[in-house]
Amino acid sequence: MIPAVLPCLRGGEDPVFDWCTGPRTALEGELADVERRIAALRRSRTALAGHLADAGT
Questions:
Q1: Which one of 4, 5, 14, 26 has the fewest beta carbons within 10 angstroms of its own beta carbon?
Q2: How far is Cα 2 from Cα 4, in angstroms, rounded to an integer?
Q3: Can you give the pTM of this predicted structure?
Q4: Are 17 and 8 in contact (CB under 8 A)?
Q5: H/E segment holding residue 9
């Protein structure tokens, strides 16, 4: 991800981020991937909590 974002940094010692097309697309894809992983972890958590609840009764 860093190589995709680096071209958008402008300035010297105190760089400023200036949106450019490539990184925005890459970051949107990364965000979608994170959302998918979160959804999968929530499903796993729900299943695990259900198994533990069943084991306790």
A1: 14
A2: 5
A3: 0.67
A4: yes
A5: strand 9-10
